[in-house]
Amino acid sequence: MATLLLVADVRRIVPGTTLAFDDTDSPEGMCTTYLATLMLDELRDYDLIGLPRLVRLNPNVPWKTRGNAAVSIQLGTGTGREAVCGHIGGRTIKCFRSGTPVDPEQLLARAAEVLESNARFEYHSTNPGILCTLNRPPPSLYWKAVREIVRLEDVETILRGCGAKWKVYKGGRGLIGAAAAAAWRPRDRTWEVITYRHPSMLGKERVIDDASVIVMDKSVASTFNNYDHENGHVAIVPGSPCPVLYGIRGDSQSDLLLASDMIRGEKPERWLVYLSNQGTEDHIVRKRIRQLRPGDSVKVEARVTTMPVTIPGGHVVIRISDGSEIDAAFYEPSKSFREVARSLIPGDEVVAFGSVRSSPRTLNVEKLQIKNLSRDVKKVRNPACVKCGKSMGSMGRGQGFRCKKCGSRASDSSSVRVEEPRRLALGWYEPPVSSRRHLHKPIRRMSKGAINKI
Ligand code: ATP
What does the H/E/C string look like for the chain? Predict the structure, then answer.
């Protein structure tokens, strides 16, 4: 794999014609990013301007196939510096730092043909959408699509306002994701190199050497979510029958190519580097508990009010309050993350990140910051009477004590207590790699000092 990739300034505006598409795959095959590689192969007479963009949208959209991903690329006549960003059909793919646009109508006609030959129309929930535009939709559309539910009619109105050209198939819902991907202006960003299988390998088991992934994970610190050490699971390889061989995510695009070179096993047929919003937490909004609605992805600052309870299925639930209350659930697949919940006690102050489920109404916790730990003081026995030395009896909850022998009284606080050491430290906690969402910002991406292990 080439290591020539130059670091592109992702915030620079790269004028080109934006082509974006979504909702082309099915659980049985294809992948919207693979379609991007087919487009680049078929439309090779255009130059690629900037990196292709892999944009994840609202993870709580009920009709997503897998990870709610959409793709946007900029095509045109390239000018200025160029950098290697992929290898497709025996050809090195380069992206230019800037360029001049091409006619959106012509581009749409040709790109739509590629989509039509490859999208999985037979699947009931595949509703492709594709657009071409000289003026990208406003970033507000991206922010809405990564956090809320967007209506197709509203997207069409916005696209009309931009002078965009588009084509939809079946229900056309894919236009929502396509427009949102085109609207993304990175605030935070990561990169992913995705490698794809030779068509003759589709349907066969992917053979990737676990040890090589572990070595890569340890030696390339700017990558993340490679290997789930807790479950002994290679996380860069998808579980679905799509054309992806593996994808490595990270904070340095040049490191990604070094990382990919370290992976042993089945040889990729093609690869492409994407700029992405994965791992950025763009979907998370700070909210108060009383404002929570089903489908929200939020962070709430609250105090623990109950002891943890393990319910059937192995899920752990605690109640948290910021004036209003909600059950915070730590689901069984989050494995050791549940140990954090099991170690919380009333009074602990936390920031819980997660999504709101409607029934039962819970906050499914996906990351936790412990801001303050309360003292774990337990009563071990009733006090001894100061006059006669006999053990005193309780007069009821909060009522204090009375000596059965001489009738002396003592306050509630005079019971004999011990303070248990807390097993938790302040800081950040998250589930193992396999149970994280694409937009989850791993602690590995956050400041090193904040990392804690239980
Ligand atoms: P993959 O990750 O394999 O590409 P997917 O999970 O992206 O698959 P899609 O088949 O693309 O699933 O289906 C997601 C659908 O939801 C698309 O039609 C997309 O346009 C639409 N969509 C995405 N975000 C929103 C949103 N915020 N509101 C409404 N619809 C959305």
Answer: CCCCCCCCCCCCCCCCEEEEEECCCECCECCHHHHHHHHHHHCCCCEEECCCEEEECCCCCCCCCCCCEEEEEEEEEEEEEEEEEEEECCEEEEEEEEEEECCHHHHHHHHHHHHHHHCCCCCCCCCCEEEEECCCCCHHHHHHHHHCCCCHHHHHHHHHHHCCEEEECCCCCHHHHHHHHHHCCCCCCEEEEEEECCHHHCCCCCCECHHHHHHHHHHCCCEECCEECCCCEECCCCCCCCCEEEEEEECCHHHHHHHHHCCCECCCCEEEEEEECCCCCCCCEECCHHHCCCCCEEEEEEEECCCCEEECCCEEEEEEECCCEEEEEECHHHCCHHHHHHCCCCCCEEEEEEEEECCCCEEEEEEEEEEECCCEEEEEECCECCCCCCEEEECCCCCCEEECCCCCEECHHHCEEEEECCCCCCEEECCCHHHCCCCCCCHHHCCHHHECCC
